[in-house]
Amino acid sequence: MSQGTGLEALTDAYAATGDRTYLSIAGQALPVLRSAPGRGVNVITRRGIRFVQYSFDPARRDEVLNAFLQTLIGLHDYAQATGNSIAWHLFNAGDAEARHEVPFFDTGRWSLYQPGVADSISYHELVTGFLQQLCSLVHARVYCVTAAHFQRYLKHPPPGVS
């Protein structure tokens, strides 16, 4: 997630200042996003790529939705600003996987942080915002519909969620 956040922040800094140094620094994140756990966060799937959160711990390569979506947003912003073909490839492969996975994080009443673990209210709000951003960026129905579901769930959080 830090790589995705960094890509987004540095791309935003470039947009605000016009200083391409920010894009140069942001580009240094790409090798981590291209590499498998151990050196990076890239897990190849049948549909594309999943970017994992805890790549440093082979026993805990959890599928954390908010981290995955934040990485996609950062990649999209960087790819759009630079036209970098590697960034576009990583985004498109990650987007293909995310479009498949996102519905599995919707319980019908709330969002999941990772499979089997409900989001806290703050993470639910965070992931809802990320889905809304992706909906605006790529207009994919799965992001738009899931964001609307999650927004609606906020009116009545399940018992025990804080």
Structure, explained:
This protein has seven helices and four strands. The radius of gyration is 16 Å and the shape is globular. Helix content is 58%, strand content 7%. The model has no long low-confidence stretch (mean pLDDT 92). A two-stranded antiparallel ribbon has the order 1-2. It has 162 residues and is mostly helical. Strand 3 (112-114) and strand 4 form a beta hairpin. The protein has one domain (2-153): Alpha/alpha barrel (Glycosyltransferase).
Please provide the count of β strands: 4
Tally of discrete structural domains:
1
Give the overall form.
Answer: globular
Radius of gyration from CA coordinates: 16 Å
Query: Looking across the biggest beta sheet, what order are the strands in?
Result: 1-2
Mean pLDDT: 92
- Largest β sheet strand count, sense and barrel closure: 2 strands, antiparallel
Unreliable stretches, pLDDT < 50, 5 or more residues? none
Count the DSSP helices.
Answer: 7
Short description:
It is built from seven helices and four strands. The protein is mainly alpha-helical and 162 residues long.
Which features does this protein show?
mainly alpha, Glycosyltransferase, two-stranded antiparallel ribbon, 162 residues, globular
List the helices and strands and how they pair.
Layout (H helix, E strand, L loop, with lengths): L1 H16 L3 H7 L2 H5 L7 E3 L4 E3 L13 H18 L2 H17 L10 E3 L2 E2 L2 H18 L2 H13 L9
Antiparallel strand pairs: 1-2, 3-4
